[in-house]
């Protein structure tokens, strides 16, 4: 056999892409300790912690409004399947964490959707999971957003904040032309 035939089969690696946004990044440089250039390997049995405390957190956010440990991500294999996932847990006693429309209080945890927006305070993080096969480790790939993520992307999991009237016609379609709403008796129609 040749050396090529003896090489172990390569496994694909699950990668968690995280795109960060904060409105004051240019002034405060809150992400200055994050490495946006390359993928980073994280052992499967480690928790990826995000927060202000560099001795406890793998990913540091340089902001006094961020908790010592803000939240964690835990990689796991789903029961009776070969699928992998991530669990997100809020570790801040002072700040609620929102994952899409789900608000997490202190020590609350949920499965991280394959594509979602994590937010707390002025922070917005777009998380996207790229599935892989490896059970020994996963990778993180950090990105920096130039514009707010909630305005930049239209995710199907985020409902429109515009209420829809019972007739199903959005009022934004018709200009109001300065008129105030008036009631009409159904007999006048």
UniProtKB/TrEMBL annotation:
<dbReference type="GO" id="GO:0045087">
    <property type="term" value="P:innate immune response"/>
</dbReference>
<dbReference type="GO" id="GO:0005737">
    <property type="term" value="C:cytoplasm"/>
</dbReference>
<feature type="region of interest" description="Disordered">
    <location>
        <begin position="169"/>
        <end position="189"/>
    </location>
</feature>
<dbReference type="InterPro" id="IPR000253">
    <property type="entry name" value="FHA_dom"/>
</dbReference>
<feature type="compositionally biased region" description="Polar residues">
    <location>
        <begin position="169"/>
        <end position="180"/>
    </location>
</feature>
<feature type="domain" description="FHA">
    <location>
        <begin position="49"/>
        <end position="121"/>
    </location>
</feature>
<protein>
    <recommendedName>
        <fullName>TRAF-interacting protein with FHA domain-containing protein A</fullName>
    </recommendedName>
</protein>
<keyword id="KW-0399">Innate immunity</keyword>
<dbReference type="Pfam" id="PF00498">
    <property type="entry name" value="FHA"/>
</dbReference>
<dbReference type="GO" id="GO:0043123">
    <property type="term" value="P:positive regulation of canonical NF-kappaB signal transduction"/>
</dbReference>
<dbReference type="InterPro" id="IPR033621">
    <property type="entry name" value="TIFA"/>
</dbReference>
<keyword id="KW-0963">Cytoplasm</keyword>
<comment type="similarity">
    <text>Belongs to the TIFA family.</text>
</comment>
<keyword id="KW-0391">Immunity</keyword>
<dbReference type="InterPro" id="IPR008984">
    <property type="entry name" value="SMAD_FHA_dom_sf"/>
</dbReference>
